[in-house]
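pinging the channel bc i need a second pair of eyes. not urgent but kinda urgent?? the chain im working w is below, pasted from the shared doc
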Amino acid sequence: NSQGMLEEIDRKIKEAQIENIRTILFDGDTEHFEQDNFDLVVTAMTLHHIKDPSKFIRKSANAIRQGGYLAISDLESEDGTFHSNVHEDVAHHGFDKEKIKEWYAEAGFEMLFCETNEIISKHREFPVFLAVG
């Protein structure tokens, strides 16, 4: 939900000469995707900014064509110190992976995996999960 981040991704897509990917500036709390419109929905470090993540996952399920995927990468549960700027729009301090699996199942996804896949080193280490269903 950041125009600047989408511009960066668009630049990388163009550099890689990929022609079948498009980015969308989308407010996960208030907007709806077109139904059966995508093969893949990806979010990276976005879910913790969305007020109702389970609702967003359900919206994604409706937008993804049969056989498509939802991939979410975000912070695992943390104490709130990842975003030291109190003015940032942060709705959650990361997520428990079991809760993510539950939300995927409730939306009708078959969970392929939900594992820690990265550690971000800021002023300390913050684990990041990747969930794919």
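so The longest strand covers residues 64-75. and The first helix runs from residue 3 to 15. — does that match what u expected or am i reading it wrong
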